[in-house]
Amino acid sequence: MRKDLFSESGRLADITKYLRRTFELWGYREVFLPAVEEFSGNLRKGTKFAYNNGFYVIKPDLTSQILANLKEPRRMKLYYISEVLNGGIRGKWQAGVEFIGGKDVQMQVEVLLTAITSLEALGIEDFYIDVGSLKVWENSMEGIEEFRGEVFEALTRRNFEIIERLPISEEKKEELWRLFNFRGKRCGYGKLNEIVDAVDDERVFIDFGTIRPLPYYRDIIFEIYSPRLGKPLGGGGEYTFKGTDAFGFAFDLNALSKLFDGRKMEKSRKKVSGDLREAYRLARELVKLGIPVEVGE
Amino acid sequence: MRFVLPKGRLFKGSLEILRKAGVELKPPENRELIVKNGKYELLLARSFDVPVYVEHGVDVGIAGSDVVEERESDVLIPLELPFGKCRLSLAMPAESLTEIEDMEGFRIATKYPNIARKFFERRGVDVEVIKLHGSIELAPKIGIADAIVDIVETGNTLRANGLVEVEKIMDVSALLLVNRVSQKVKFEEINRLVLKLKEAGRNDV
Q1: Are the beta carbons of B184 and A161 separated by less than 8 Å?
Q2: Which residues from B are below 8 Å from A when comparing CB atoms?
Q3: pLDDT-based confidence at B205, cuts 50/70/90?
Q4: Contact B181 A158 (CB under 8 A)
Q5: What percent of chain A has pLDDT over 90?
Q6: CA–CA separation, A48 vs A46, rounded Å?
Q7: How confident is the model at residue A193 (pLDDT cuts 50, 70, 90)?
Q8: What's the whole-model pTM score?
């Protein structure tokens, strides 16, 4: 049994209330996925088990589960709030969105803004988003394709010594070193510049050192973090499903709960008191207008 | 900037290389576990916990590649450091030497259950792994394990306990660990430290 499950649940309820509202304001619909799926090589994470001569996965990675259930690609904006297991019995709670079949650049901008406004809705303002590109790295691999594995290992570990040891030209090493340490607002990749310009938020940076080594990502990837917490708040990226572009992200709800100050949010709740009939009449009007309310006893 | 260093065999080497890189950290004078020195803060932890501290928010740490591999923590590893060299090996009593492929059902005592399990899985041999926290060499002696997976430096401890090294599983070295978020938030400061440590390491070799 978990220690203090109900207080953990209370915090998740507070956070997901604001996330649900923001996701829905941006036009995403909640998707309800089964806890158990038949095992498939396309499903990532989850905890595998055998039952009646069949193999199954409990609570796999949500993006891979959505794709495994999608017969044909079509324009969809989905969001989920779910626990994800990773081989064990205790998982991590995640909330995320998937925008499938949107227009390139516009889709990326909208998803990034969904992430930004979600954090703002939670009262979390001191965060940064670093956006990177896998294509930029793939292009830089021209002529050194056989060392792709080593270059990506160097990036994942942020260990440039791995690249220094490769039998490649000094010019190539120099080019990779510049990419390795690039962080700014404009770069040589038009698509990234367009995205960062349109998002127009001082907390968003281009950072080619940002790598999320998930097999389904194709190009644009991003990571969200706050100087107040040593772990990323979430991240996402661009993928392709049967030729259709998609873009999504997930928040780590445990990380968000460490930054979320519920008391601050409660201050915006209108307190109503007095005659019961009058107080509830006013409360009802306020709720209709979407204003949080509490009727005093 | 906050550093976490392992108590034990890597502690002295860690302080030394950081000092050469311009980071003067004072070793604790008594039993305190956190020491402040100007803009630096030093935390002392069990070697197995160093990657976990770094993953959860301490800016920089130094740990052996054995514990980093065992804990599978999500940390950046920008440098291999030129000390703490040894190896992680499979060893067993000299009188009962067995080929690895014939170890099916053997009991393996170790501080490194993940690494041991993966090693035998790769060889397709099903073994029972028993996790111990120290004096691993005792386990085969008193009959609770058939073999051990442990750190070998000179081989003297193995020999003294009648054990023979069967196979090296991995080379071990001290590694510099950096928290993923600190790398972004303290970008310049950490990049400078990595370059200085690299320089200090080169001069040491």
Answers
A1: no
A2: 55-58, 76-80, 178-185, 187, 191, 198
A3: low
A4: no
A5: 59
A6: 6
A7: very high
A8: 0.82
Q: pLDDT at position A241, please?
A: 82
ipTM over 0.90: no
CA atoms within 13 A of residue B137's CA, in its CB half-sphere:
14
Which positions ≥6 away from A215 have C-beta within 8 Å?
A44
Give the pLDDT confidence of B127-176 residue by residue, as tens digits: 999 999 888 999 998 889 999 999 998 888 889 889 999 999 999 999 99
Check if A214 contacts B (Cβ < 8 Å): no
Catalogue all structural domains in chain A, each as residue range(s) with its CATH number. Answer: 1-125+227-266 (3.30.930.10), 128-225 (no CATH), 269-297 (no CATH)
CATH topology of domain B2-84+173-204: D-Maltodextrin-Binding Protein; domain 2 (3.40.190)
User: What distances in angstroms separate CA B199 from CA A161, A241, B2, B17, B186, one per listed residue?
Assistant: 12, 46, 21, 10, 20
Provide the pairing of β-strand B147-152 with B86-93. antiparallel
Question: Which one of B41, B53, B58, B77 makes the best mutation probe of the A interface by having the most chain A beta carbons within 10 Å?
Answer: B77
Residue ranges per domain, chain B? 2-84+173-204, 86-171
What mean pLDDT value characterizes chain B? 91
- Residues paired with B174 in a beta bridge: B64
d(Cα B150, Cα B131) in Å, to the nearest integer?
11
Contact residues on chain A for B185, CB-CB shorter than 8 A: 128, 225, 227
Say if the Cβ atoms of B184 and A231 lie within 8 Å: no
Q: A262 pLDDT band (50/70/90 cuts)?
A: confident
- B86-171: CATH topology: D-Maltodextrin-Binding Protein; domain 2 (3.40.190)
Q: Which residue of A has its CA nearest to B78?
A: A159
A205-246, pLDDT tens digit by residue?
Answer: 999 988 876 667 889 999 999 999 999 999 999 998 888 999
Q: What Å distances lie between residue B171 and A100, A268, B87, B147, B150, CA to CA? A: 45, 58, 4, 19, 12
pLDDT band at residue B8 using 50, 70 and 90 as cut-offs: confident
In this chain, the answer to whether the domains covering B2-84+173-204 and B86-171 adopt an identical fold is yes
Token pair in block for residue A27: 């036009």
